[in-house]
From TrEMBL, chain B:
Biochemical pathway: Energy metabolism; oxidative phosphorylation
Family (UniProt): Belongs to the cytochrome c oxidase IV family.
Species for this entry: Camelus dromedarius
Stated name of the protein: Cytochrome c oxidase subunit 4
This protein's UniProt keywords: Membrane, Mitochondrion, Mitochondrion inner membrane, Transmembrane, Transmembrane helix
Taxonomic path: Eukaryota, Metazoa, Chordata, Craniata, Vertebrata
Family matches, as InterPro entries: Cyt_c_oxidase_su4, Cyt_c_oxidase_su4_fam, Cyt_c_oxidase_su4_sf
SUPFAM superfamilies per record: Mitochondrial cytochrome c oxidase subunit IV (SSF81406)
Transmembrane regions listed in the UniProt entry: 104-122
Protein origin, superkingdom: Eukaryota
One GO cellular component term: mitochondrial inner membrane
Membrane association type: Single-pass membrane protein
Entry's localization field: Mitochondrion inner membrane
Length: 68, 171
């Protein structure tokens, strides 16, 4: 039996490799494209947030039962 | 395929006098026995049934069967074809042929879609009760106003899209 020039293809750990790739990809996607914009939006909202002013607006709109 | 098979089965069962219905393109058969269904119509999934298609052979066909027991090189082409036709109902090319059945099927599907639509429309007009008060436009507008007053989801959601100064939706 002469040895040919063909290399043996990978036969082991095919699922593990694929899972690692997919999980790595989805984690980085989540971190950079989902979580980060949300954190930024929340930070921007609360940077200049005046809760008393907000409360007064709501009170004037008449939605509270205990603070008219 | 099963639609065609069922229909031709109905024809065969229904008209006991109508024995001569042949599928197009098939050669003359011997008497076809009313056999079990698996052999009655050729199936891709059951290509070589145990029982031959024509079980009752006339003398000529029996002679051919005897000849088949000898060397096959002595059979002429026509004889080989005849033996094939004795054994099998249809060739693969015949059983796999296209048909226009899909047009009928899609037509019926759309017809019944339309019929269902008409039924539902009629029900809407004559059967359904009045809308509950919470689904009227007036109530829904008041509900939306209340949510905006309460500033529901002010960060990224509904209230964030409302411009409180100009009292309209943000562009």
């Amino acid at each position: 039996m002469t040895s040919s020039a063909l290399t043996k293809p990978q036969v082991r750990d095919l699922l593990a490799k694929r899972l690692r790739f997919c999980i790595h990809g989805s984690c980085s996607f989540c971190k950079f494209d989902v979580a980060a914009p949300r954190k930024k939006a929340r930070a921007d909202f609360y940077r200049n947030y005046d809760s008393m002013k907000d409360f007064e607006e709501m009170r004037k709109a008449g939605i509270f039962q205990s603070a008219k | 395929m099963s639609f065609r098979a069922a229909w031709s089965l109905v024809l065969r069962k229904g008209g006991l006098g109508i024995r001569g219905i042949h599928s197009p393109g098939s050669t003359a058969h011997g008497k076809e026995k009313m056999s079990p269904y698996t052999n009655y119509h050729a199936q891709r999934s059951y290509p070589m049934p145990d029982e031959p298609f024509c079980a009752e052979l006339n003398a000529e066909q029996q002679a051919l069967k005897e000849k088949e027991k000898g060397s096959w090189t002595q059979l002429s082409h026509a004889e080989k074809v005849a033996l094939y036709r004795l054994q099998f109902h249809q060739s693969f090319a015949e059983m796999n042929r296209r048909s226009n059945e899909w047009k009928t099927v899609m037509g019926c599907v759309f017809f019944f879609f339309g019929f269902t639509g008409l039924m539902i429309w009629w029900q809407r007009v004559f059967v359904f009760p009045k809308k509950p008060i919470t689904l009227t436009d007036e109530w829904k507008a008041q509900q939306l106003q209340r949510i905006l007053d309460m500033k529901g989801n002010p960060v990224q959601g509904l209230a964030s899209r409302w411009d409180y100064e100009r009292k309209e939706w943000k562009k």
